[in-house]
């Protein structure tokens, strides 16, 4: 299994998931106001589905990063 971080470019910056930290709890999906996150083909540390981002919907609000209990997400805005 590959636990390398997966970085996705979005319109205002980037979104990164650290698969080796993600338990697949889904809290980030619930908290996203744009519904930009969904469970994709990648798997987290316990072979649970990990979130994937729809780069067209994400506004980089950072709520997914804030609510992730395992610090498995990073949101970076362009300056």
From TrEMBL:
Q: Which key words are in the record?
A: Iron, Iron-sulfur, Metal-binding
The record's Pfam families line, in alphabetical order, gives:
Fer4_7
Q: List the protein's name.
A: 4Fe-4S ferredoxin
PROSITE patterns, per the entry:
4FE4S_FER_1 (PS00198), 4FE4S_FER_2 (PS51379)
Task: State the organism of origin.
Answer: Candidatus Shapirobacteria bacterium CG10_big_fil_rev_8_21_14_0_10_40_9
This entry's Gene Ontology molecular function terms read: iron-sulfur cluster binding; metal ion binding
Domain 4Fe-4S ferredoxin-type: residue ranges:
13-42, 49-78
- Return the SUPFAM superfamilies for the record: 4Fe-4S ferredoxins
């Amino acid at each position: 299994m590959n636990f390398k971080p997966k970085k996705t470019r979005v319109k205002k910056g980037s979104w990164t998931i650290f698969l080796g930290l993600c338990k697949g709890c889904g809290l980030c999906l619930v908290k996203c106001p744009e519904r930009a996150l969904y469970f994709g083909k990648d798997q987290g540390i316990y072979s649970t589905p990990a979130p994937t981002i729809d780069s067209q919907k994400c506004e980089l609000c950072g709520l997914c990063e804030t609510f992730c209990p395992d610090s498995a997400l990073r949101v970076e805005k362009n300056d």
